[in-house]
C-alpha cells in the first residue's frame, strides 16, 4: 500500500513539468555525481520532488527542515524510505532543530541549499569543520538573502552563494502568486472567516506583500498597506491601496498579514490599538515580525485551537495564527505555495546547484546572481508545458536594439 507521504509526492510531481524535464536529463547525464548536498528547506511534497531530482542527478542528499512547524512528517518518512537521509520533524524545539542541522553537516556536504540561511549560519559560527569541502550554496528566500548580504558586507561569508530568490522567476511567480495565494488560503482554512468586506492590513509592499494585497482585494477585502520605503508606499497608493502607518492601520484592521522579512512589525505600540477579534498572521520567514513575547507576558489567559492562539488582553481577544510562524506552511492545513509555482522555483534551485557544482570553485566568496540564461530557459520550458508560443526578435530588430545611431 502506497504511504500517504508518497501519495502527496506523486500528486505534486504530476503538476511539475519543468522539474520533471530536468529530472529526466539529470537521470541521463548524472551532473551531480560525487556531490553531497545538504539542505535546510520546508520538508513537504514539492520539496521532495526537488530532492529526488537532485538524487536522480547522482547526488547524495541530506535534508532537514528550515522551520519547526513546516515539516510534513509523512513526506519526511517517504523520503527516508527512498534512501534520503531526512532528519526533519514537525513540532521540534529549538535544540532539536539545530541538532538536525548538525546531522546534515555531519555528512560533510559539498553543496548546500538553504531557505532562510540557518544552515549557512551554522556552518560559519558553530560548525566550521564543515567549511573546507563546501564548494558553494543556493539560497531560496528574501530573508536569507538579506542575512547573506549583511554577512558579505562584514567579510564573513566564506564561499559563493547563488541568490535563487532574486531571479525574475522567483520574484514574479513564487513571491507574488505563491505567497499571495497560499497565505490567504491557509488563513481561510484555519479560521473559516470571510475575507470579503474585511479591512486587511498588509505590512510590506515588496513582491510578497504585493501578491497578498492584490489577491486579498480580488476576494473583496478593503486592503491597507503599511511601508517604510516611500517609493514602495507610493507604488501601493498608485496600485489603488490605502497606505498608512501601522499605528493608524492598527485601529481599523480586521486581519493583519506581515510580509516584511524584518522584526518588530506589530509590537506593544500596536496591540493596545487593535480591535477585539483582530487576527494576526505572518507570511515572512521568521516568527519575530509579531511581538509574541509581549502577548505572552500581558495576556491574562490563552486559548489554544488548531493553528490559532487567542490571547485575552483585558477584555480584548487577539488571535495569532501558526504561533507567528509562516502562515502558509505552519498551520495544521498549511500546504505552502501552489505546486505549479514551486515547479519554477525548484527548477531554478536544481539548475543553480548544477551550475554551482560545475563553476563554484571559480566563483569568489559572496552572493551571486543566477545566470539569466538559466532563468530564461526555465521560462521557455514552462511556456512549452502550457502550450504557449512567443515571438522571436528578427535580425533587424536585434541590430536596432543594440545600436545608438537610429534616429527619427
From TrEMBL:
Entry keyword set: Hydrolase, NAD, One-carbon metabolism
Quote the NCBIfam families the UniProt record gives.
ahcY (TIGR00936), PRK05476.2-3 (NF004005)
Q: Where is the S-adenosyl-L-homocysteine hydrolase NAD binding domain?
A: 175-334
Annotated GO MF terms: adenosylhomocysteinase activity
- Please cite one Gene Ontology biological process associated with this protein: S-adenosylmethionine cycle
Which family is it part of?
Belongs to the adenosylhomocysteinase family.
Question: What is the protein name stated in its UniProt record?
Answer: Adenosylhomocysteinase
Query: Native species of this protein?
Result: Methanocorpusculum labreanum (strain ATCC 43576 / DSM 4855 / Z)
Query: What PANTHER family would the database entry show?
Result: ADENOSYLHOMOCYSTEINASE
Residues where NAD(+) binds: 141-143, 206-211, 227, 283-285, 328, 337
What does this protein's record comment on cofactor binding?
Binds 1 NAD(+) per subunit.
Q: Does the keyword Hydrolase apply?
A: yes
Q: Which Pfam families match?
A: AdoHcyase, AdoHcyase_NAD
Superkingdom of the organism of origin: Archaea
Cofactor(s) recorded in Swiss-Prot or TrEMBL: NAD(+)
Q: Does the keyword NAD apply?
A: yes
Q: Which GO terms describe its cellular component?
A: cytosol
Report the EC code(s) recorded for this entry: 3.13.2.1
In terms of InterPro entries, this protein maps to: Adenosylhomocyst_ase-like_sf, Adenosylhomocysteinase-like, Ado_hCys_hydrolase_NAD-bd, NAD(P)-bd_dom_sf, S-Ado-L-homoCys_hydrolase_CS
